[in-house]
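@channel sequence for tomorrow's demo:
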Amino acid sequence: MPKAMTIPYLLAVFALSMLLLGALLFVPASTLNWPEAWLLLGLFACYFVTAGLWLGKNRPETIKKRTSLKMPVKSWDTIVVSSMGITLLAVLPVAALDSVAFRLSAVPLEVKALGFAGVALSLGVMFWAIKENAFASRIVEMQKGQKVVSTGPYAIVRHPMYSAFSVMVVGMALALGSLYALLPAALTIFGLFARTVLEDRDLQKGLAGYKEYAKNVRYRLLPGVW
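structure tokens (generated this afternoon):
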């Protein structure tokens, strides 16, 4: 992506993303008086701005990879990504209906704080992973010149973006004060686990050096567990 196009493109993606997230939160809640939702949007805004400015300056080509609407090239990835997209987006309106519209869940302030901490930590890890991996893409595909990345969070687990995303989706539900939103969050994590297995299989078959990397970094998502 030419650098001249980077800032307008980023602004458009940022605006559309925040509008979508805001609509998914505040429309079902039927109110703008929801501090937890505004704080969550603030965290996402900080992440988008920080990651966007860094990528725009250092790796503008990665922005297109991360924001492209290109459909997955593998049939299994199409199914998994589509399913995860639905369940992930469902976390927000379910949380709005649960904790604001109908007030079904009573989540303590301490648990909400833990949820926000989880979201903040996961966003930090995702930014770290993007900085380390120039081949990070939204879909599973082998890229020209792709190499194994084994530094930063990739020295701890083989799929740190997915690890962080799992923490983030649970953190979102708790931060918004919703126990019912943990259901679509759990379904999203199940999809992440499935994608991890299938992507790892393809990488071991098609990416030179990945088998050796997998022997050195044994765990896919959870250090010491899996």
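heads up for whoever presents: The radius of gyration is 18 Å.
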